């Protein structure tokens, strides 16, 4: 079985100068280091748990003639249909089936991503395992009495690279339009919430309001698609993808811009958490001289990202085309004032309170004590105002105070020093 990328381009990727300049350090040990043992360690993620229930007959998956197990699997994994995003660049092993008239659909929640290609042989699934990082599975799109999702480490041919910080991970890829040259290679780069809008979503459908913000979505990128679609430059927002292609089998007519923005944030956040955890496990196992320094460096990168310190903020208000904004904000804990880290802003920035909701994830809680100590210590330096670097001025006193108040009410296991009042 060939590897199947879920959120990235296969082949040769030419990274732009800006993307290279922003590269961070990465995990440099083997994924099968004794402290990690990625290939041999059974997963404890949501997909592994579902497999056990399927095998025991506690759960059944319904098969649809067009979409196969898609809708049933989304329901079983509690992945909302509203999270649908659509990518039409041929950046999957199922590339022969993907084009502007048959885009690959992606769905996600905080811990699982599901990819579907109409007419494809498998559903592509990635789960964020609390210990292992991203673990990849496939589900055969063939009716079976007790279907099982099988793990496939071959996916790491694309899903473990410098761009995933040296750990099994995910990322969202922007593709440049390719020239009409049959020998042209894939040309693009990964995005996260630090990427300017102008560099996001090449090869993706984008629906919803984005005001004057320019992006690279809704433009054909493959030579075979040019002149064969009604896609236009993204100056005019699209309410949906209805009328662009046959929607048979797709649960939603949207590729919501807000879902794409959240996906931009979440994919890199999962990689950062995995890297911190793996650095700490290797340091505890090998006790290298630079072990603590590598853990702290990884923790600093994670904290900067989870507090949106370098976020590329929208130049205009953003509004989604589906119910994703409401669905996403409706889950997760709230503090005594009714505030939540899942509240979206979409006027000045992505989140109303700039601290990642992924702090509540199983993967965050499963990090070794040394990793969590480093992360919490750095968070306190920033949120308390002890960190004086000008780049942290984007976090106002009101932002920092609100984040701390929300965490005190909603996050178990906070260090005692988080109770100190910020002036």
Question: Can you put this structure into words, describing what you see?
Answer:
This protein has 423 residues and is α+β, with helices and mostly antiparallel strands. It has a domain of 162 residues. Helices cover 26% and strands 9% of the residues. The protein contains ten helices and eight strands. The chain has a six-stranded antiparallel β-sheet with strand order 1-2-3-4-5-6, covered by helices on one side. It has a two-stranded antiparallel ribbon with strand order 7-8. Strand 2 and strand 3 form a beta hairpin. Helix 5 crosses helix 9 and helix 6 crosses helix 9. The N and C termini lie far apart (57 Å). The N terminus is likely disordered.
Could you give the order of the helices and strands? HHHEEEEEEHEEHHHHHH
Q: Unreliable segments (pLDDT under 50, ≥5 consecutive)?
A: 1-22
What portion of residues belong to β-strands?
A: 5-15%
Largest sheet: 6 strands, antiparallel
Main sheet strand line-up: 1-2-3-4-5-6
Q: What's the count of strands?
A: 8
The class by helix and strand makeup works out as alpha+beta
Mind telling me the C-alpha Rg? 21 Å
Shape: globular
Query: Overall mean pLDDT score?
Result: 90
Helicity level: 25-40%
Distance between the termini: 57 Å
Individual helix count: 10
Task: Briefly say what this structure is.
The protein is α+β, with helices and mostly antiparallel strands and 423 residues long.
């Amino acid at each position: 079985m060939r590897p199947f990328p879920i959120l990235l381009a296969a082949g040769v990727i030419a990274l732009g100068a800006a993307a290279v300049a922003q590269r961070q350090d990465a995990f440099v040990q083997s994924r099968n280091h004794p402290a990690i043992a990625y290939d041999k360690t059974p997963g404890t993620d949501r997909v592994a748990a579902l497999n056990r229930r399927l095998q025991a007959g506690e759960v059944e998956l319904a098969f649809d003639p067009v979409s196969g197990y898609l809708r049933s699997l989304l329901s079983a994994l509690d992945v909302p249909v509203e999270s649908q995003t659509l990518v039409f660049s041929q950046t999957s092993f199922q590339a022969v089936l993907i084009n502007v008239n048959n885009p690959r659909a992606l769905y996600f929640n905080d811990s699982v991503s599901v990819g579907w290609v109409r007419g494809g042989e498998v559903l592509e699934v990635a789960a964020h395992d609390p210990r292992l990082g991203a673990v990849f599975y496939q589900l055969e799109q063939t009716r079976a009495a007790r279907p099982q999702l099988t793990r496939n480490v071959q996916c790491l041919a694309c899903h473990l690279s410098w761009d995933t910080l040296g750990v099994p991970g995910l990322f969202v890829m922007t593709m440049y339009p390719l020239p009409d040259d049959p020998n042209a290679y894939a040309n693009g780069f990964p995005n996260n919430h630090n990427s300017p809008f102008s560099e996001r979503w090449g090869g993706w459908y984008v629906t919803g309001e984005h005001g004057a913000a320019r992006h690279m979505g809704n433009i054909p990128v493959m030579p075979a698609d040019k002149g064969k679609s009604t896609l236009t430059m993204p100056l005019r927002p699209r309410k949906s993808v209805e009328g662009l292609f046959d929607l048979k089998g797709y649960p939603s007519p949207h590729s919501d811009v807000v879902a794409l923005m959240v996906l931009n944030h979440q994919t890199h956040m999962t990689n950062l958490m995995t890297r911190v955890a793996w650095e700490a496990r290797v340091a505890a196992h090998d006790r290298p001289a630079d072990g603590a320094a590598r853990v702290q460096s990884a923790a600093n990168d994670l904290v900067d990202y989870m507090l949106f310190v370098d976020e590329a903020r929208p130049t205009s208000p953003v509004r989604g085309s589906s119910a994703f904004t409401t669905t996403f904000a409706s889950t997760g804990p709230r503090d005594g004032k009714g505030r939540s880290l899942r509240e979206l802003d979409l006027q000045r920035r992505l989140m109303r309170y700039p601290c990642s909701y992924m702090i509540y994830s199983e993967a965050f809680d499963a990090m070794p004590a040394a990793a969590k100590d480093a992360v919490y210590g750095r968070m306190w330096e920033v949120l308390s105002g002890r960190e004086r670097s000008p780049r942290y001025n984007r976090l106002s006193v009101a932002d920092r105070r609100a984040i701390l108040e929300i965490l005190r009410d909603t996050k178990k296991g906070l260090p005692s020093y988080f109770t100190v009042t910020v002036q």
